[in-house]
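I had to read the description of the data format several times before I understood it. Each protein is reduced to its one-letter sequence and a matching series of backbone shape codes. The format is easy to grasp once an entry is in front of the reader. For illustration, here is how one protein appears when written out as sequence plus structure tokens:
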Amino acid sequence: MDTMTGPKSKFQASVIIPTLNRAHSLSQTLQSLSRQALPPEAFEILVIDNGSLDSTASVVQNAVEKFAPHIIRYIYEPVPGSLSGRHRGALEAKSDILVFIDDDIAADSGWLDAIIGSFADSTLQIVGGKNLPYYEVIPPEWLEWFWYKFGEGRACSELSLLDFGEETREIDPIWVWSLNLAIRKQALFALGGFHPDIFPKHLQHFQGDGEVGLTMKAKERGFKALYQPKALIYHRVPGERMTFEYFDNRYFFEGVCHSFTDIRRLYKKYKAMTFLDKVKSYLRPMKLAAKSILDLPGSPHVANIFRKLKLRHRFQQSFLAGYNFHQLAVQNNPPLLEWVLRENYWDYRLPEFDKENSL
């Protein structure tokens, strides 16, 4: 049966949750979904287990029993990464509205109703919401430096937090992030789906630009996206995510993502050239800065400014390290370049090559 032309589903939305070894937070996520201000039969919940070794399966089974008559489906997907979880969920979903969330969020009781209501506008393709933090410990002072203000709203992309205020408004699709992303199924397939995302560290070379790749394509196609403040979720932020080490890893990850985006952009620009040799010739690792920013004497205010600059410099180095890691990996591996340049990733099986001798 064609995924987009089959019989109309009884469900108004399909909530898709890729998960890996987060049984405790997943349990809280499922509990929040059971409290939605909608009849249980109005939506289905698909938990896509990407190879968990903890109690994820039993957590889902407990939720099936505890939260009946909600429709909760457990689907095991052995291919690692959020890409396989998202695409397997999209292929399994029975609704025309797909709602992707992370396994460490808690949804407000009016969250899903607000999303479904927004799609009453037939010209709308994508809906995002307000992503607020649930800090498990008191945040360090320096974290405030990574909140960016946008008019009446603000965002901290390092922790996937976003608050554009209380007004519903049309927004650039790139501001809709995968922890709280709703899209019409037809639009998802028309755009070619998600790009590779969130792989285990030993598979980091397969990383792509995830939902950003999807939303950039949506922007290019002129798809309409909406910020719906009532589509409110709370994102768990444990203490280990508010450390310099976590931010180092996050910026390395972002560097890999940007390298993936740049390679695809170059190929699109120079696609008339020889597939491997010419595209590879345009790949250039970025240069790491040679010097650190020095501590300078001065007032407490000046000292604080330089603390901020030093920290940003540190994370910039992590970003560049990730960018260079990916650029060099692609240069040395034709199968990896082919992976990066795929038209779409509905076949999300990972290519094989001799990693030990080629990365």
Notes: The chain has eleven helices and twelve strands. Residues 246-358 form one domain. The two ends are 41 Å apart (CA to CA).
